[in-house]
Amino acid sequence: RRRPGDEMKRGKPLVLPAMGWLTLFFALPLLIVVGVSFASRTAYGQVVFQWTLANYTRFLEPLYLMIFVSTLATALITTLFTFAMGYPVAYTIAMVLPKKWQQAGIILVMIPFWINFLIRSYSWVIILRAQGLVNTFLLHLGVIQVPMTLLYNNYAVMLGMVYALLPFMVLPIYNVLAKIDDNTINAAKDLGANTLQTLFFIWLPLSLPGIISGITMVFVPSLTTFVISDLLGGSKILLIGNVIEQEFTKGNNWHLGSGLSLVLMVFILISMAMIAKYDKNGEGTAF
Q: How many CA atoms lie within 13 Å of 212's alpha carbon, on the beta-carbon side?
C-alpha cells in the first residue's frame, strides 16, 4: 500500500539534473558576480577581495544617476508604447478573429522570433539610415529635399525596442483574454454597459495579470539592453546597459560592472514581486 509522500520521494532523483544545471550555470555565476562586486584593484592593478561597497555607491554619482534616469525614462516610454500597441493587437486576435484564425495571428506575432535578434536590429539601420528606405522613399516623392537624421537618437532606440519587445506584451495579454468567458461580456452588455464601460470595467480588470506580466517582460529587458542602443543610438545614446557592457569589455573594470549589474537586479526582483502579487495563478505567463 502506498503511503503519502512515496511518489514525491521517487520523484526527487528526477529533479537532481535540473537542480545541478541551475546550480552550475546560474547560482555559481551569480555568486562569482557578487564576489567580484566587492573586490577592488590596487594602484598596481592587483585584484584585492575585500568588503567594500565602493562599486555600489558609485551608482549614486551624478553621472551614473543621470544615465540611469535616462535609461529608466526610455524603458518606461518603451513599455507604455508596447502596451498601447500590444493590447489592441492581443484583443483583436483573442476576441475579433474567428477561432480558426487565432493561431495564425499568434504565429504572425511570433515570426520575428524566427530571425536572429541582431539581424532584426541591423535591419532598422538599413531602413533609417540617410540612404535607407524611408529617406529614399520620401526623397523620391519630393516630400523632403535632404535626407532626415533618423538614426542615432532616442527615437530610433525606442523604435527598435518597441519592435523587438512588442511580442512579449502581446502574448501574455492574449493568453489572459482568450480565457475570459464570453458569458461575462454578454452579461455586462445585457446590464446596459456600453463599449467603453465594458473595456474599462470588464476587459482591463480581468486582463490585469497579463498586463502586469507583459509590462514586466518588456520593462526589464528595455532597462538592461545595450545592443539596440549600440546599433540605433551609436555613441550618442548611452544607457546603463551600455555602461555595464563597456566596464566589462573596454574598461576592464569587472568590479564596477558587477556592482551595477546587481543594482539592476533589484529592479528585476521588484518586477518578479509584482507578478507574484497580481498574477498569483500564473495566468499571464503560461503562453
A: 20
